Amino acid sequence: MTKKRALISVSDKNGIVEFARELVELGFEIVSTGGTKNALASAGVPVIGISEVTNFPEILEGRVKTLHPNIHGGLLAKVGEEGHRQQLEEHGITPIELVCVNLYPFQQTIAKPDVTVEDAIENIDIGGPAMLRASAKNHEYITVVVDPVDYQTVLDEYKQNGRTEAATRRKLAAKVFRHTAAYDSMIAEYMTNLAGEENPEKLTVTYELKQSLRYGENPHQKAAFYRKPLGSAFSVANAEQLHGKELSYNNINDADAALQIVKEFSEPAAVAVKHMNPCGVGTGKNVFDAFTKAFEADPVSIFGGIIAFNREVDAETARKLYEIFLEIIIAPSFTEEAMDILTGKKNLRLLTVPFNQDGKAEMKLTTIEGGLLAQEFDQYGFDQATISVPTKREPTEEEWEALKLGWSIVKHVKSNAIVVSGKDKTLGIGAGQMNRVGAAKIALEQAGSQAEGAALASDAFFPMDDTVEAAAKAGISAIIQPGGSIRDQDSIKKADEYGIAMVFTGVRHFKH
User: Fold this and answer.
1) Containing H/E element for 21?
2) Which pLDDT tens digit goes with each residue over 101-111?
3) Radius of gyration of the chain (CA)
4) d(CA 253, CA 248)
5) Nearest Cα to 431, choosing from 307, 301, 306, 266?
6) What's the confidence (pLDDT) of residue 1?
């Protein structure tokens, strides 16, 4: 009986010896290259070297070995057609029925902190993708395997049916094209960054499935959570879940929002988020103090919210957290006693994120129907702003602290956004209103009597002086805003009229 031929060439050798050994028992002869051939031969698996098939040695340090008609003819031949069979016979080419290939470890290589450009370039696979794409194109006749997780499925079907099912071959081919597309996308991103291209004519991105979700924003919407390969470790996408039920679509969005806000602080801080907007932010001498202030900022909205800390959660704080219904708590870590307390709530999700690692600079991608918007994340801070004080009165030292806190928070609030704050906590937040004075009225109403002597931050300039008027009547003593309106002088005049210190930053912080 003529043996069936399988070509195996893998960088990821997990399970490959066992897979090849079972293929031999199923009547396959194995053709292989370099390190894979050595691994199989060392394990006692009979194997034919690629040079024996091509009648040509591997050359150029292994850069050229499989790019040969004796290989690609065997991969691309429609063996069900007489004309193709005749040509194979004429040129002495043996058809290949099964291909098992995975690629040079480009991702693992560029993940190394000390990787050189030369190492990265050398780990761009050429022959592997060519073999995979050829085999996947010809999946009517060829079973192509790129992922070790599929070895057993292939073996089971061969044992049961003598070959794989057509539907299986198509699924495996689709996985191959996803795999090679993702591989090329990572190379394209690396090379684009290397070349310093900011807005390439084509944007190629790839993400890996982290988890399938029960549903999206609403139960009738399907959804899944994908993670960027080599993306920022300082992210929800790479957080470790220590306890609680599976994250939902809305949980993930809210958790990301909370994490982005708490990153703003170097001192102990606690951030409460609801529907991707902060509802309470506090700073203090420790996490208990910070959380107490965040809770006091809005004890109603925090119910069912997400809390993020930038310090380890201790037992004292955990006991206070336990009293409230929360969806998620994010922190660098939890003490053992805090874990004992919080795990008493079986559904409460506890996440840890490595705050000791810097987040990678990434682009923010927002899809629209039929397209995609790409921009930098808004990481512009107070220290980078061009600060000026156009009013007669300058802020006091305590007012400056409150203004800086409000300015750090307002860029994370949906526009139009207003934040009323003291020196160590938010007092009122107005989010997502169609006009600025409307957002101010919400924030001031929430702050109530605490607005007396507090600061007000706006994410964009005042188009007229009505917001200053409302702030003054509520007792606000200092305002921070970008400035830049053609009617700035009206707002300055109104602030001077009430003795308010106003600060211009020259920086707008819209968040849609």
Assistant:
1) helix 16-25
2) 998 889 999 98
3) 30
4) 9
5) 301
6) 45
